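ok trying this again, last paste got cut off
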Amino acid sequence: MWHGNWRDRVWSRLDRQWDMVIVGGGITGAGVLRLASRLGIEALLVERRDFAWGTSSRSTKLVHGGLRYLAHGQIGVTWESVRERERLLEEGPGLVERLGFLVPTFDGQSPSKRSFAVGLALYDLLARKWDHRYRSRQAFRLLAPHVDSEELNGGFCYYDAVTDDVRLVLRVIREAVRNGGTALNYSAARDLLFSADGRVNGVVLEDLLGERTIEVRARLVVNATGPWSDELRAGFGGKPLLRLSRGSHLVFPAWRLPVAQAITLLHPTDNRPVFVLPWEGATVAGTTDLDHDQPLDDEPHMTPRELDYLMTALRARFRPLDLRAGDAIASFAGVRPLIGSGSGDPSKVSRGHSVREERGMLTIAGGKLTTFRTMAVDTLRAARRLLPDFPLISPDVCMFDALDGGSLASDEIGQGAQLRLEGYYGAEAENLIASARPGELELIPETPSLWAELRWAAGQEGVGHLDDLMLRRVRIGLLLPDGGRALLSEIRRVVQDELGWDDERWQEEVAAYAQLWDSAYSVPVLFDSHTAP
């Protein structure tokens, strides 16, 4: 699909009238492309960086209703989210997986045990299932033995879900392409094009991996650029719509912060929830919620202030582990595009979404990872209001292609790994296994990924730079110390020929990756004695 000179082939077909151009290759744009392709709409998706480079690779990895949104009165958002969570669990086994959550309760804690009970009851009622229960102090300690037992009363158990956010985006986009859609990464929409009556009717596209530009015309342009939405809208003088919030996370080796289920902690200073969850064989802790005022094109990164905030919560509630900041092996930060501006706590800003029509362009903004399907449905409904000849979209349309369960069979990998591959790669999983060379169906050390996934990604998934491979296609850069640099010589043997890079290009990419990881994915240095390593 994206192999050989695929970019040249796509660029050679751009000079025509499209039904729809979607700007933005995160989960929102991916969902719009997928559903447009289901309707037979000729749609092109363009992304200025890598697919899922922005917010959609930097989430907390949860597919959830947002239990805490209930406390802020966002019942509609929670209802929509829990329903979409259930749909994704049904449609995407192996990609979206059910995950148990534990909420410890302590003496003198606010919100109280009663408040949690009421909130969880409403949460389950919105999902039309009864999934939570309260555990005694003794039973809770068996479930979460490393949580500080001093003043512990017990705790609640409930369920949400977890995913690999990048693989979610890639599966949606690649299924859209197989269904007739077109997608290009490293292709920047530099300017908007306008018709004689002043309506948006295309974009000026620049290839960031080659020296070429082109004017691409379309009946409809969809702005799905997330945090960059206001920048594109500025092309016709649109007033700012978004408030940008940064969320940062720490990644620990599982042996240093062992959790069998996710644990929700209330931060001792502001009572915000901090999640600690098992993910890809490691443990992720997050998130923060601060206004983001840095240039959007700079890689977001965790600040020492955010590190101190997270470590304060972890050390307070995992006191027996005596955690230090230096125990973390990586960090990552993302920018949330929230609708609404002004002062106040960004944690209380609505996670709802809206579709706005301006000068003939649709902007889909806000929302959250879990609700990307309904965001795409609402966008295509709005598109049909502008272009009545577009097909009608069903509110219950499926996002994923159905798979023949159990069709993937290999004596070299277990059933769990087979389910994961089917979830992450869909119908392409069989070809991935077939492309593996001897020894490549073994696990990359300390990760749940196979060496064959690296070969497949390098040859078939549109990798433009080494960080695409290490941080997004396969998550080695977040799961191993120093971003997995100790394995780069072995990785090179698997992927260099597939990428078509000569030795000079490989060295340039390694140097650029090391600089990027050190500046944006390493753990900041703390000088506070109670959190410093």
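PB: full thing came through this time. Residues 503-520 form the longest helix (18 residues).
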